[in-house]
């Protein structure tokens, strides 16, 4: 289930954007993967995961407001449903950012990113419950395979020897669940307004929710620290540029193609964790990661058909 809006117009038009659309989606996934790695670096410097989540959302809000100012879309601003669903989307993205960084701190970038990538499975389960999607044997088999992949990836069968804590597993899964909430809320907000309006409200709600937990003292410390360029880069890549690129790319990108290209996010995050943060995965963990990525991608392709 991908984010689309009936009011969404691309920044460019014609054949050029059609050719570049898959590259926009790929660039967004790459940005999200890198933001996970940057978050890992900042967490290693003992910064709070909630502070990282707030900063990422705050910088994203600035970018989205500039987008909204350049392409104003006031349609639906008087509609309570737009505000309600957009606020729920903000709750989802706030949970996604926060739980994701907590999971990284309790385990590794690779595990946290892959667990979050399980979000489409939650979307399917909720869709089955709400009768929005017809269950089938193939879909249930795919869900079971993802669950098996989670067991192998996290080493939950032998937590004593695993480098991932129970909290890391739970928050990683909650990050995916929060992202699924964002997908559903964005989907139901889309008929009432443009994506820049929805994202502006969502990121504003995120900032309101996380301002107190992130602590003002820590925010002031960021400005005075040598790490402030990394915080800025985290926000630019993780929420500012990436969301705009993703929504622009989806306008002309087939859902099946987008689901495959989106694999770049957990793959990039995993490579960053291994190469830069010197994090490692055991053999069965690599098997579990591959099982999750391939199965979730296959689910995305089948859903688009």
Give your account of this protein's structure.
It is a single chain. The chain has 305 residues and is mainly α. The protein starts with 14 loop residues before the first helix and ends with a helix. It has 13 helices and no strands. The longest helix is centred in the N-terminal third of the chain and has 30 residues.
Topology:
Layout: H1 15-44, H2 49-70, H3 80-106, H4 109-116, H5 119-129, H6 137-154, H7 166-189, H8 195-214, H9 216-224, H10 228-250, H11 255-261, H12 264-275, H13 283-304
Helix pairs in contact: 1-3, 1-10, 1-12, 2-3, 2-8, 2-10, 3-4, 3-7, 3-8, 4-7, 4-12, 5-7, 6-13, 11-13
Quick check: average pLDDT?
A: 85
Strand content: under 5%
Could you estimate the helical fraction of the residues in percent?
over 70%
* Most strands sheet: none
What is the first-to-last residue Cα distance? 11 Å
**Structural class label:** mainly alpha
Number of beta strands: 0
C-alpha Rg (nearest Å): 18 Å
Write a brief structural summary.
The protein is built from 13 helices and no strands. The protein is an all-alpha fold and 305 residues long. It starts with 14 loop residues before the first helix and ends with a helix.
Question: Which terms summarize this structure?
Answer:
mainly alpha; single chain; 76% helix; 305 residues
């Amino acid at each position: 289930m991908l984010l689309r809006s009936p009011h969404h117009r691309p920044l460019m038009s014609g054949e050029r954007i059609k050719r570049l659309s898959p590259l926009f989606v790929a660039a967004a996934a790459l940005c999200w993967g890198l933001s996970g790695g940057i978050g890992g670096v900042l967490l290693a410097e003992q910064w709070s995961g909630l502070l990282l989540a707030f900063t990422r959302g705050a910088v994203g809000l600035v970018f989205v407001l500039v987008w909204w100012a350049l392409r104003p879309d006031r349609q639906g601003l008087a509609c309570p449903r737009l505000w309600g669903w957009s606020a729920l989307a903000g709750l989802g993205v706030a949970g996604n950012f926060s739980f994701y960084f907590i999971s990284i701190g309790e385990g590794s970038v690779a595990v946290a990113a892959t667990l979050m990538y399980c979000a489409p499975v939650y979307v399917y389960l909720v869709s089955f419950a709400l009768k929005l999607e017809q269950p089938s044997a193939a879909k249930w088999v795919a869900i079971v395979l993802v669950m098996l992949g989670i067991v192998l990836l996290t080493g939950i069968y032998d937590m004593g020897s695993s480098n991932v804590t129970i909290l890391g597993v739970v928050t990683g899964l909650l990050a995916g669940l929060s992202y699924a909430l964002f997908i559903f809320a964005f989907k139901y907000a889309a008929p009432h307004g443009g994506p820049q309006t929805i994202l502006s409200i969502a990121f504003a709600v995120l900032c309101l929710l996380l301002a107190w937990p992130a602590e003002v003292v820590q925010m002031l410390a960021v400005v005075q620290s040598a790490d402030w360029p990394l915080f800025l880069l985290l926000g630019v890549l993780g929420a500012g540029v990436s969301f705009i690129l993703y929504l622009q790319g989806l306008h002309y990108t087939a859902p099946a193609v987008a689901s495959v290209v989106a694999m770049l996010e957990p793959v990039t995050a995993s490579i960053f964790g291994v190469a830069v943060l010197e994090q490692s995965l055991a053999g069965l963990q690599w098997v579990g990661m591959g099982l999750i990525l391939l199965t979730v991608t296959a689910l995305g392709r089948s859903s688009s058909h």
